[in-house]
Specification:
about 375 residues; alpha+beta; 8-stranded antiparallel sheet; single chain; globular; binds zinc ion
Length: about 375
């Protein structure tokens, strides 16, 4: 290669300053990479639709994506929860293995995505005791899930150039493998970021105009508290009966996202789905397949869904540690599918449910 040509790795940096002689350079210390990555994930800003210099308080806080008093409290033991997210973040320390780890409830599920004032005022209806299931409470939970996903995606895209330094001192072949993996990953993430930026804008305007006509919701209330809580949004690719709904990476249409909250409202677990847009697109089809499940299979189905699709998932420690090893291994394989470690999602990823993680009944449905 000519030294001043753009590097083969796609970094947009000239080869001379990028990959030329990289195999001869000392490896970058993993501790430094990890701390740079952490910095990207803690850059705070306020996600409120009216965020701005005049309306925000100065202080960006570690906002809970799952309300602490109602949601997380129901699965906390001795101040701790079992965290999938912390396990995924520790993947480098664990040489590629993902194991959920104990995490203090104070920091669990938080992101620096709201100012103090807006976090308190916006989510008051779902934070106070006795808050119940309504279109408005699901809208708020959904809004927070979307804000969280956008925040995380922005950080992930900023983190790509940091990850691209992982191959210092490695052979050319290894450099090529690392960079190719990161490149495809980055393409997908940038695509996802564009979608999320546009989805978040639509939620902002639905909030400001107080117009919820484009917003769809479906939720069930279980008859007790489940041992798992989760919050996030995802592209529904496959449904609960093994149908393909949309295939990512094909075509240029915007893929449709659905937000999913598994949390506790008014003393029982609630599984709430919310989405903006089409009333008969992939999110609606996804929800229809969930409705068709026998009521006694729904609690296990939402737990498996959280493992399969969301990193922002937390379990009651004694429940997780008390599961048969085979069940735990299965859950970990689902968590892996949710990260980019597994290439393509199996069409029966949600339809095949060999382990009844829970058999709690449904008390009511909404939407
Ligand atoms: Zn390069
Ligand atoms: Zn604010």
């Amino acid at each position: 290669m000519h030294p001043y040509d753009p590097c083969w790795c796609g970094s947009n940096i000239k080869w001379k300053w990028c990959h030329k002689d990289r195999e001869k350079r000392p490896p970058v210390k993993i501790g430094r990479l990890l701390s740079e990555l952490r910095d990207q994930y803690s850059q705070g800003y306020c996600s409120h639709p009216d965020a701005g210099a005049e309306t925000c308080s100065q202080k960006i806080i570690r906002a809970h994506t799952i309300q602490r008093s109602g949601g997380l409290a129901g699965i906390t033991e001795a101040g701790h929860v079992m965290s999938v997210k912390a396990g995924v973040q520790a993947i480098f320390d664990n040489e590629g293995r993902i194991d959920p780890i104990l995490d203090g409830v104070r920091g669990a599920s938080t992101f620096n995505g709201f100012c103090n004032f807006h976090d308190t005022t916006l989510f008051r209806p779902v934070e106070i005791g006795g808050s119940t299931l309504s279109a408005e409470s699901v809208f708020l939970l959904t809004f927070r899930a979307i804000a969280y996903e956008l925040y995380t995606k922005r950080a992930a895209v900023r983190a790509v150039p940091i990850q691209q330094q992982m191959d210092y001192g490695a052979s050319f072949l290894k450099q090529a493998i690392v960079q190719q993996h990161l490149h495809y990953n980055a393409v997908g993430m940038k695509r996802g970021l564009i979608d999320l930026e546009s989805i978040k804008k639509r939620y902002d305007s639905a909030y400001r105009s107080n117009d919820r006509s484009e917003f769809s919701v479906y939720a069930v209330e279980f008859s007790e508290v489940l041992p798992v809580v989760a919050c996030g949004a995802f592209y529904p690719e496959v449904d609960f009966s093994g149908n393909q709904l949309q295939k990512l990476g094909r075509g240029s249409a915007e893929f449709e996202q659905i937000a999913f909250n598994l949390t506790i409202l008014n003393g029982v677990t609630v599984a709430a789905f919310g989405w903006l847009g089409s009333k008969n697109g992939p999110p609606a089809a996804f929800v229809e397949s969930f409705k068709e499940l026998p009521d006694l299979e729904k609690s296990a189905a939402v737990i498996q869904l959280a493992f399969e699709q969301l990193e922002n998932t937390y379990m009651r420690p004694s429940w997780w540690l008390g599961l048969p090893e085979e069940w735990r291994n299965f859950a970990v394989s689902k968590i892996k599918a949710g990260t980019s470690l597994v290439e393509e999602r199996e069409v029966d990823a949600l339809a095949k449910r060999p382990y009844p993680f829970s058999v709690v009944g449904v008390r009511s449905e909404f939407g």
